[in-house]
Amino acid sequence: MKMPTVDHRGRRVFPLFAFALFSGLISAQDKADRNEKPKPPPSSYLPVTSDESLSSVIKRMEAEKPAIAKRQSDLLEERYDLTDRPSKSVKMSRGKVLQEGVRVRLPDGMTWEKLSKMSPADIRKQNSFPHGFLPLPHPNHPEGGMVFPKFHIEEIKKQEGRDLTRFDLDFDLPDHFLPEFPPPIYLTTRPDLGDVSKGKLVTIDNAFDLFNGILNPKQLEGLRLLVTPFPQQQFNHTDDRRSLRPSRGVTCFDCHVNGHSNGATHLAGDVRPQEFRHRIETPTLRGVHVQRLFGSQRALKTVEDFTEFEQRGAYFDGDPVIATKKGVNLLERGSQVHFMAEFQEILDFPPAPKLDIYGKLAEDQATESELRGQKLFFGKAQCAVCHPAPYYTDNLMHNLKIERFHEPKTINNARAVGDGPIKTFPLRGLKDSPPYFHDGRLLTLDDTVEFFNLILELKLSTEEKQDLVAFLRVL
User: How many other β-carbons are positioned within 10 Å of the β-carbon of residue 302?
Assistant: First the structure.
């Protein structure tokens, strides 16, 4: 750069090009100041602190909530027939009527018969894979976190005064596709008692009265811990929460209601970045005593491992740094974890009066359709390869490689690239546990049979699929 010159009055003068350069530097800085901060690189960790106040977060998220709800509602309507079409004869254990019929919508001009004759490569090439068979996103996938059905929120507020309402979003699936509420509790140790919940939602308010004299002291203490609220990612005392007021947190039984499920949803904590995380629909804890793997994908080996992992990691989106900030409940393995597990281990499947001690149909009690369905289950339909009797699980992980049927795609901010290995869930008591599959994408048993008929390339007839549904309903 040239040095400044001196004019006839002795004043220093900058050359024109130098002035322009200097002005350009100022303009560039002003522009940089006005622009938003550059997007940070991907990180495995959540931000520990925020530069936005809680009141600002609430105001912003409440304003965004209607658009987010509509986006998810539009997706569900595009994928499924959501009408209330209950069965005329099939009920869950306490009497809620099961929804029936295939609810997944087909592409225009397509039929299930036509689709089943196509190869995975052709379905992928022609973009004919039903959207209802694709992974189901969280109600707000970028945000994630625990979301509870309204009926559960209202009952907890009534009993405990604890509010599980989120100011940023609501649960998405209609109530008629969810398990009955509250579900019954059956114990392996006291089958003579039937439903020991007496039709009530078990909480810290009534657990002792309901179970004192039925459980041993360790089991009773384990149950107390399962219904005690502890801090969680969205429900805690800090300014990084999604409840209007500081919260005592959530309980294990807020999702695993009465040791079963209310359909509450979350995101699995084992995948990053956020768009690759999988929605999880709360599985039942019934039959824990016959299971050897826990978590839909994590393959934890014991229920003690799962219980400890839930408190330390899953409650906080798998981030132990955030867990420390928000008040992680570090359970003591030798007593608390063991006591909680001992109670979970005695949660039994619901009665299945048509099954014999081998888990097969007693021929003198079953219908012809159910018997044909059982033959298909253990034969042509290949179901028993992963779901052998008597509990209908092989306690392994399997990868269905659903990505054979579709191109990688983003659905409401969730990236669908393949599910990976998924735990084989027991099918005993299946009719009590809608919706189905690990993320709840299959609303009915009819949907589930259509899904596996296509994925496994079984080419079942319409009558065969109906018979298979009939058998699944009596397990």
Answer: 15
User: 107: part of which helix (H) or strand (E)?
Assistant: none
125 C-beta neighbours (distance < 10 Å), count: 11
Q: Shortest CA distance to 164 belongs to which of 67, 260, 235, 240?
A: 235
Which residues pair with residue 369 across a beta bridge? none
Structure tokens at 272: 């990053």
Which value, in Å, is the radius of gyration of the alpha carbons in the chain?
A: 27
- Helices (DSSP H) in 119-149: which residue ranges? 120-125
Nearest to 204 by CA among 226, 236, 180: 226
Question: How many alpha carbons fall within 13 Å on the CB side of residue 224?
Answer: 13
The reply to whether 310 and 358 lie within a common domain is no
User: What pLDDT does residue 18 have?
Assistant: 42
Contact between 350 and 186 under an 8 Å Cβ cutoff? The reply is yes
Please say whether the dihedral angle defined by the alpha carbons of residues 339, 395, 262 and 180, taken in this order, is positive or negative. negative
Query: Which three-class secondary structure state does DSSP give residue 362?
Result: coil
Secondary structure of residue 381 in the 3-state scheme: coil
179 occurs within a structural domain:
yes
DSSP secondary-structure letter at 14? -
What residue numbers bound the domain in which 178 lies?
Answer: 140-344
CB of 328 closer than 8 Å to CB of 312: yes
What is the residue whose two structure tokens read 């609810």?
A: 103
Q: Is there a domain that residue 154 lies in?
A: yes
Residues 322 and 213 in one domain: yes
For residue 67, is it within any domain?
no
Same domain, 171 and 238: yes
Peptide bond connecting 174 to the previous residue in cis, omega within 30 degrees of 0: no
- pLDDT mean for each 10 residues of the chain (475 residues): 48 44 46 61 82 95 98 98 96 97 96 97 97 98 97 97 98 98 98 97 98 98 97 96 96 97 93 92 96 83 88 84 90 94 97 97 95 98 97 96 97 95 96 97 98 98 98 98
Q: What is the largest CA-CA distance in the chain?
A: 119
State how many domains the chain has. Answer: 2
Compute the distance between CA of residue 423 and CA of residue 301 in angstroms, rounded to an integer.
Answer: 12
Nearest to 458 by CA among 468, 470, 443, 472: 468
Is 419 a member of any domain?
yes
